[in-house]
Specification:
With 940 residues, this protein is α+β, with helices and mostly antiparallel strands. 29% of the residues lie in helices and 26% in strands. β34 (903-906) and β35 form a beta hairpin. α4 packs antiparallel against α5 and α21 (667-690) crosses α25 (792-804).
């Protein structure tokens, strides 16, 4: 049956066009129920297992899905119909919830079924005159519910779940069974499920009867009301407000920054009252304070572990809209900052887009009487100090007190000191290594679930080997005769890259970089490719690896192990002994690695003058070329920076750390790195030449003057003049930053690394060529090609290179630039999260290692603050605060900061500490707040 839908659309010229769309209706759309006797449904695969007369089929309205997704993900909620009208509404309102809902509907272990009510002749409805889209959709949901009840008969109870008071009233009047989500969950006699229910108190929602406010501050505003969106939009347009993403200081939760394009600078937000209920990651509207109240953050003190009650949140009148609230509060929140500086400072006046997620932490019982019905009120303390405590209600307080749990935020009104949320699930016992490792993954949004059956079905049968078809492929060159080898970290099993270096008769060298041909097995549009797209990167924790691709691919089929034939994508150069590239060619290949060396083994071979075998000679020749290439890059302005990489020795049985130390970089590491960089640059040039608009590249934006200011301040205090006018000038300055202290230069380079911007992926059509620059490498063009086993960006680049060589056609997605940009954004998000998870894993294992090992050691001061300093411990690669004043001494006690000379001194001048000075410290694990252990550093 064909229906016509018409509507009017306004053109850019202001005229109205009538648009008519055809809408097809059918009478054979499958209902999904196993109990159905209809001939059109009978032979279809069933998703709804309604086998008994007491079975209940649930149909949800849009608001229930949007607000109760945590509850729906619980296995107790099954036999659920998601109507297409609801699915579309959810997609338009919240993409994150939509993706979680789609995952539920596609999970074969869950009984969720999508019914196309908008295309069934008995359930499709037209909008009535004067009816709003929302009312029309509510009516469509009721019609579909009624159809299901008549279609399945009296043997099944069909129940509409809605928290909309009006929709429930209409459903009951129409003879449709309808309940609120709370009432339905209560009927299941599962108190634990009631903790998952989100309570919304809006005019259209049914309130939960046991929502009782026990707070003494009821009826008094603690925060200022947020401006309505209409006023925010107008204020942004007029330049009164400024929009940006709020980032809370990782070391000081009472200080945040909002990057604003409208003023070209970061706006500093001091104190939770000025953050005005904004969370880290929220897009906010900010109002600037008058210039005389601006602060620069130079001499801020180190935030201490203090109770939430010590924060600068305090009562404000309901009508208060003036700023700032209280000068003393602002000064305290700014931790003693001077007021004669020029960094913009302001307060949040509205939330443009929330970034609420699920948070990991533990419960802190509240000192108040429990409500009736066994409901206890508790404060949830997040493990990450950037987030405030969250108020929840629970019926299982005793079971949760000593557990790491997940809580989601539901709301935060101006009358409440804390946001309100609900319990989602329990992770495990506090302090357990497995539990705390899972917390790291959850906090950084890392998907560590096992690969689905659909994904695994995309893999070739095991054991796999190179076939005659591969060898006879005209697009693939047989390079098995070459002496190819790999050099990787010890114990590496997912080997992406291998090398060869063969002398030529003309005195030149043929040098090859051979990369695992992952795209031979990962095809566009397959479940395997979709999964890799979402995961974006493998994640390396201290004790485990979370793969982007299934292990049969990463450790066997694609891994370039020794003495087995493997498929590769090769970049091969002819080079002079001076490392000048004469020619470059690219080819798919078959290789057979003769050796899989560790960095230590490769270095030992090169250093042992007694070894003169062919493989060792290849290594030495390659290292000689790499040294020349590295020197040439540095001369062009490439930075040689340093980072505090930590290496653990892990017990193979318990997975606990046995030893900890700084990761050692050898010449062998630098040799491999040099040729990987060269391959990435060569491939970037090739793909951009063929696809100038939709190549995936990687850029490293130049750091701003403000970003480099901490480095300049430190080096100036040490009497060093650092030139930051270009990467070349900075590189030369860093080379000249030497002293008698052998560790001095590395510390300066570590400080320089922290001033850098983040390197990011981008689509070449989104920027102009001058913006393609990779500042750190001093490269005009750069991409990632050399690690497709562990990075999805490299998979995309392999496809681009294959298309540039005419091997394959370019997949259709590359013609869709917005989609490619979206993929690049996800890759940047995943790459950063993987980095943060790796660091968090190091912090966790550092705590485990030092838990029963109090240690005295030497540290270097890297940042001066008014109440202490931040130190770096070279032996262990650890950084942390050392306090000079007692807790709560906001005035700094007898100490003051000499900003110009980067010193903190006693008032009488008897003792002073300066930046980069060596100090003796004691390291010990303490727990100043319940369930928040930390490594405490104190001066000896």
């Amino acid at each position: 049956m064909l229906q016509s839908k018409s509507f009017s659309r306004k053109t850019k010229q202001g005229k109205y066009l009538k648009v008519v769309r055809e809408h097809y209706l059918r009478d054979d759309i499958y209902c999904g129920a196993s109990i159905c006797k209809d001939k059109d449904c009978k032979n279809q695969e069933t998703r709804l297992n309604l086998t008994t007369p007491s079975s209940t089929l649930l149909i949800l309205d849009t608001n229930v899905v949007l607000n109760q997704i945590d509850l729906l993900e619980n296995p107790a909620m099954d036999d659920v119909v998601i109507l297409s009208v609801v699915l579309n509404e959810v997609k338009n309102q919240n993409l994150s919830v939509y993706n979680r809902l789609r995952a539920l509907c596609s999970n074969n272990l869950r009984r969720f079924f999508v019914f196309s009510n908008e295309h069934h002749k008995d359930t499709y409805i037209k909008a009535m005159e004067g009816e709003s889209p929302n009312d029309r959709n509510d009516r469509a949901i009721r019609v579909a519910t009624d159809w299901y009840q008549k279609h399945l008969g009296a043997s099944v109870r069909v129940l509409l779940l809605t928290n909309d008071r009006e929709n429930k009233k209409k459903a009951t009047a129409e003879g449709i069974a309808a309940e609120t989500i709370e009432a339905y969950v209560r009927s299941l006699d599962r108190p634990d499920l009631l903790d998952l229910v989100v309570v919304r108190q809006s005019s259209g929602d049914v309130n939960m009867e046991d929502v009782e406010d026990h707070r003494p501050s009821k009826r008094k505003a603690i925060y200022t009301e947020h401006k309505p969106m209409s006023e925010i939009t107008s204020g942004l347009h007029r330049g009164i407000f400024h929009q940006g993403k709020l980032r809370v200081n990782r070391y000081n939760p009472f200080e945040a920054y909002v990057g604003s394009e409208s003023i070209g600078d970061e706006i500093i937000i001091h104190g939770r009252s000025n953050m005005n209920r904004a969370f880290d990651g929220d897009i906010v509207a900010v109002e600037l304070f008058p210039k005389e109240q601006w602060h620069d953050g130079k001499s801020s003190s180190i935030a201490e572990d203090e109770d939430e009650e010590d924060e600068d949140v305090h009562l404000v009148p309901n009508s208060s809209d003036d700023a700032p609230r209280n000068t003393k509060v602002v000064q305290e929140a700014s931790n003693g900052m001077s007021s004669d500086s020029s960094r913009p400072t302001g307060r949040v006046v509205g939330i443009i887009k929330r970034n609420w997620q699920s948070y990991c932490g533990s419960l802190e019982p509240m000192d108040m009487p429990a409500a009736t019905g066994g409901v206890a009120h508790a404060l949830f303390v997040t493990k990450d100090r950037r987030f405030p405590k969250i108020r929840i209600q629970t019926r299982q307080l005793d079971n949760l007190l000593h557990k790491r749990i997940i809580v989601a935020v539901d709301s935060w009104d101006c009358l409440s000191r804390y946001p309100s949320g609900h319990y989602v699930r329990t992770i495990g016992d506090i302090g357990d290594r497995e539990t705390e490792s899972e917390v790291v993954l959850i906090e950084n949004d890392i998907d560590s679930r096992p690969f689905s059956a659909q994904v695994l079905s995309c893999l070739p049968p095991i054991p796999w080997s190179v076939s005659s078809v591969d060898l006879e492929n005209p697009n693939r060159q047989d390079l098995r005769h070459l002496r190819v080898f790999s050099v990787d970290p010890p114990g590496c099993r997912d080997i992406d890259d291998a090398l060869h270096c063969t002398p030529l008769p003309n005195g030149h060298f043929e040098v090859g970089v051979h990369i695992a041909d992952v795209t031979n097995f990962v095809h566009p549009g397959t479940p395997l490719d979709d999964e890799a797209t979402q995961r974006g990167t493998s994640v390396y924790l201290v004790e485990r690896r979370i793969d982007m691709l299934p292990k049969p691919l990463t450790e066997d089929i694609c891994s370039l192990r020794s003495d087995v034939e493997r498929l590769a994508f090769s970049v091969i150069w002819e080079m002079t002994p001076e490392a000048e590239i004469i020619s470059t060619r690219y080819t798919k290949s078959v290789i057979k690695s003769c050796a899989a060396l560790s960095y230590i083994e490769a270095q030992a071979r090169m250093d042992d003058s007694r070894l003169m075998d062919s493989l060792t000679t290849d290594l030495r020749n390659m290292n000689a070329l790499a040294k020349i290439m590295r020197l040439r890059r540095i001369e062009k302005g490439a930075l040689t920076l340093a980072s505090a990489e930590v290496k653990f020795q892990i017990d193979t049985e318990t997975h606990d750390p046995l030893d900890i130390g700084m990761y050692q970089i050898r010449e062998a590491n630098q040799m491999v790195e040099e040729f990987m960089l060269a391959a990435n640059i060569s491939v970037a040039e090739k793909i951009l030449k063929h696809f100038p608009v939709f190549s995936l590249l990687r850029r490293h934006p130049s750091p701003t003057k403000e970003m480099l200011e901490p480095l300049l301040r430190t080096t100036a205090a040490l009497g060093l003049g650092l030139d930051v006018s270009s990467s070349k000038a900075l590189a030369d300055s860093l080379d000249q930053a030497v002293a008698d202290d052998p560790y001095f230069n590395k510390l300066i380079r570590i400080l320089a690394t922290r001033c850098m911007t983040q390197a990011v992926y981008f689509c070449s059509g989104d920027l102009t060529p001058p913006e393609f620059l990779h500042y750190g490498l001093a490269a005009a063009l750069y991409t990632h090609f050399t690690s497709p086993i562990r990075r999805y960006a490299d998979v995309i680049v392999h496809r681009l290179l294959a298309a540039a060589l005419g091997i394959y056609k370019l997949p259709p997605i590359f013609q869709d630039r917005p989609q490619l940009t979206s993929i690049a954004d996800n890759l940047n998000y995943r790459h950063r999260n993987a980095q943060m998870a790796g660091r968090a894993s190091v912090e966790l294992h550092t705590l485990i290692y030092f838990r029963n090992r109090p240690t005295d050691t030497e540290a270097r001061i890297v940042k001066i603050r008014s109440n202490g300093f931040i130190v770096f411990v070279p032996k262990y690669g650890i950084e942390g605060p050392v306090y000079l004043t007692s807790k709560g001494d906001k005035g700094g006690g007898e100490w003051f900061v000499d900003e110009e000379h980067q010193k903190v001194k006693k008032m009488d001048g008897s003792i002073s500490y300066s930046v980069l000075q060596a100090v003796k410290i004691h390291m010990e694990v303490v727990e100043p707040q319940p369930n928040r252990p930390k490594l405490q550093l104190t001066l000896i």
